[in-house]
Amino acid sequence: MSRWKPNAEGRFRAAAMELFIERSYEQTTVADIAERAGLTPRTFFRHFADKREVLFNGSARLQEAMLSAVRAAPAHAVAIEAIVAALDGMVAFFGDDRAPARLRRSIVASTPELRERELIKLATLSATLAEAMRARGINEPDASLAAEGAIAVFRVAFAQWLDESELRSLGEIVSASLNRLGTIVAANGPKCSSLRSSRS
């Protein structure tokens, strides 16, 4: 069996996704994935640290897409403008094809280990974005608040985008979600001020 067949990473990913659905994530081994892909386990480990990384090895590329967009924002951009840039970068990363993301979501949702790893991924994105904001001169707590808000907006919008009945693009949903968050904050501003005053 040749280990130099083209597009090995893609073949491993396709084989793994098929098996995770057919047998479940827990019941699928690296050997199973390699056999289905027509390659060797040794070649698998050239591309992935373990079977979990088939589902998460895109995280670094997503993070870089987000950071590149923030770095490309104008030097005078304020926090919300940097956040919009970050969200635009994440939207561009996913493109228009929802099918792979829907399949991945169903696999991740079925396994506690994978759900925990997904939360870690989101926390890492938020921390990385906050650091990028600070590097642009945005002070705390604004940098962390803006980063946490951006990742929350993206997470909620992404879940909506994957809904079978949703026809809007990911970009449209992210934009609507960000605007909705702004509306909620503005509408509750006086109440938040009262809450702070009552505790002072």
TrEMBL record:
Residues 29-48 bind DNA. It comes from the Bacteria. The keyword Calcium does not apply. GO terms for molecular function: DNA-binding transcription factor activity; transcription cis-regulatory region binding. Residues 6-66 form the HTH tetR-type domain. PROSITE patterns: HTH_TETR_1, HTH_TETR_2. Keywords: DNA-binding, Transcription, Transcription regulation. This is TetR family transcriptional regulator. The lineage of its organism: Bacteria, Pseudomonadati, Pseudomonadota, Alphaproteobacteria, Hyphomicrobiales.
